[in-house]
Amino acid sequence: MNEIADGSLEQMLLVPDARLAIAAAKAASHWLVTGLPLVVVAPVFGLMFDMSGEAIAALVASLVLGTPVLSLLGGLGAALTLGLRSGAVLLILIIVPLCIPALIFGAGAVAAVDAGQSARGHYSLLGAVVIFTAVLAPIATAAALRIATE
Amino acid sequence: MSTTTSRLRLYRFASPATFYPLAGKLVPWFAAVAAILAAWGLWLGMLRAPTDATQGDAYRIIFIHVPAAWMSMLLYVVMAFWAAVGWAFNARLASVVARAIAPTGAMFTFLALWTGALWGKPTWGTWWVWDARLTSELILLFLYAGYLALVSAIDDPRRADRAGALLAIVGSVNVPIIYFSVVWWNTLHQGASVSPAAAPKMAAIMLQAMLLMTLAFWAYAFAVIFVRARAIALERDNDASWAGAAVGRAHPQSEATT
Amino acid sequence: MIWKSASEFFAMGGYGTYVWGAYIVTAACMAIEPIAVALRHRRVRRELAAEEQRR
Prior knowledge:
The structure holds three protein chains of three kinds. By secondary structure, chain A is mostly helical. Chain A has helices spanning 2-5, 8-14, 19-33, 35-48, 53-80, 87-114, 120-149. In chain A, helix 3 runs antiparallel to helix 5 (53-80), helix 5 (53-80) packs parallel to helix 7 and helix 6 packs antiparallel against helix 7. Chain A starts with a helix and ends with a helix. The longest helix of chain B has 33 residues, at 16-48. Chain B starts with a helix and ends in an 8-residue tail after the last helix. Residues 1-6, 189-196 and 252-258 of chain B have low confidence and may be disordered. The chains are: A mainly alpha, B mainly alpha, C mainly alpha. The interface between B and C is large, with 45 and 32 residues.
């Protein structure tokens, strides 16, 4: 993150009780730049791969639910590895295992619909993961920011 | 007065000065217990237990596979616990113990995967399958690797301890999710994955051997982790008076040498 | 003992490669790890003792 290099992160952290807001805001902005475009573009890919209408809908739904999880966990990983040289590889190593449940349920939902089965179980589990992550990840990220900067 | 003394006595063990010699005394006992239980377990499992009707003698991998898998999961939880204690109470020794556990836990995870693959090939015909149980064990290996990589990448020991604790705690939240998804995943894809543990009730002698090996692995883990914790404690507190004294006491002749 | 000969024991009913492949790697890891850790501990002690001397 270049923000720590140019000191702007420290400026932001000067605001009292800012960490949680910063964590949430960073995750949200990351999703807007990565997850949202993916959601928008996915139907195009679905059509390219001859997916059925229902499967494409399932793909979009699972991406809408799943990509925020990736952004939230990415924020946590970035906060934990703030300022470290090993940067990207370490970040991936940390984040990948945490993202697996979301990936499994998301992919499972699409596969189920593609096979003509109900994806309701997958969606509920994916939904639970999203809620859980959305509530806890910013708190953990805020704690990681404190650890990294004190 | 008695409550203060008993509180004091507990906190004594939180000091490296007390932990170091105590751990040193316990290590040989744990090692001996590990060796004896392993010998007994292997004798039962490899020399006395009958050949399995369905799997032949390939099933004997169970006597190292299951203990390794159980230890891999148990050690992760224990590691996360001590890391959390170290963070919450600013107890450096707890963080040292957490760091000492990680490599051993990672090793058992690797062994669980390795022995599992060698068991799977002759029995299922494949080294690997993206079954929920195998996938979650692989994820556990990544969780250990992530923890180890993170704490090694941070130069400041206390920042490393705290960051590692946070990661370990987040990872341990992940673990029951993965484990429950095993159940849900299986019911969602009914019959799609075959459980390798679906063997009928084990013969008593097989169960006994497996439990002995589990206890042996547990004693082994204690011994290795205590030695590693002693080493790490010395490395970190190398300018503390207790460290010099602990080392000096065992090298009384150091004054005589040049 | 259920084995009638040593060669039977090593063959493991035809699954010898798998069984011994598993056991040998396990034994190797559980031998190397304690040795490596003990060496690390010994090295730290030696370095500390040398430092104590210099003081």
